[in-house]
Amino acid sequence: MSNIFVRMQEENEQRVPPELERHLLTQVNHINVFGRVVELFVPNALQTAARIIGGSHEEGPVDMGGDRNAMSPEDWPDWRLPPGSSQR
Amino acid sequence: MVASRNTQALSDADLIARYLRDQNARYFSELYRRYAGKVFAKCISMLSDEGLARDAMQDIFIKVLLNLSRFSAQSSFSTWVYSITYNYCIDLIRKKKKLQMIYSDDVGKLSKETEVELPDSVLLEMKQERLKEVMQLLPPGDKAILMMKYIDDLSIKDIADVLNKTESAIKMQIMRAKQKSQHIYSELYANDPIEDEEMNPNTVN
């Protein structure tokens, strides 16, 4: 037989407002939609921002081929060309 | 209909795994149906206010949802949900009432000579209405500990984990909560002998 605490809880269990489930599930759906939107758009937004400031999301730093100071001024990369593209 | 029958057959762990995989609200809805009553009953007992309990329950289930990926199968899902419920209610009471005293006495304040282990019958043989009154006057931490012990049937170790305390602190706190309950009871019903025969503190379970 259940004790008095359990009986007290069982009485209160019947008092759950039925509309609460609908409210909660609406909130759950909103959270899921928000999560999907973030998942879908945030990586693209970051990539776009990276491109705007001149870099590329996929490419790492461009290897300039050793110590830059060791190159003669004629071999320095052209600042007008994007990094990694052919010099001439 | 078939879908809901399918979800009913799944264990809590399966529902969680499927919800995390598919993000389908019907799995979470089934978890809600299983635990809503118990969580709501705990909120009412802890907060003694139906409106507050309603808001608290919504917040607790959102918390459960957002932390579902962190749930590890080390404890049962029910214990995890109840621990969120108790801690949420204790925090809410602390904030609302600006309560400093969450437990009847800070552990270690009283000397051991004054501690007397009371039998469970002190509480279990009270009349329901009177127990309700006594529970309402207990500090929230004591209330939570008694509910975990007598309703959820949690072990001392589990209660200690839920409240982030040591096992010996919990044992001491249970003892004090029982003493406090008996003290409140005798203050409330000193002049009402109806239940005197039923309230026999010498009865051992």
Largest sheet of chain A: none
| Percent range for β-strand residues of chain A | under 5%
The Cα radius of gyration of chain A reads 31 Å
| Rg calculated over all Cα atoms of chain B | 19 Å
Mean pLDDT of chain A: 78
Main sheet: strands, sense, barrel of chain B: none
Q: What is the helix content of chain B? A: 55-70%
Tell how many strands the DSSP assignment of chain A holds.
0
Beta strand % of chain B? under 5%
Which stretches of chain B of 5+ consecutive residues score pLDDT under 50?
Answer: 106-111, 196-205
Task: Categorize the overall geometry of chain A.
Answer: rod-shaped
Q: In angstroms, what separates the terminal alpha carbons of chain B?
A: 46 Å
Verbal overview:
The complex is a heterodimer of chains A (88) and B (205). Chain A has 88 residues and is mainly α. Chain A contains two helices and no strands. Helix content of chain A is 50%, strand content 0%. The model of chain A has no long low-confidence stretch (mean pLDDT 78). Chain B is mainly alpha-helical and 205 residues long. Chain B is built from ten helices and no strands. The C terminus of chain B is likely disordered. Chains A and B meet through helix 1 and helix 2 of A and helix 3, helix 4, helix 7 and helix 8 of B.
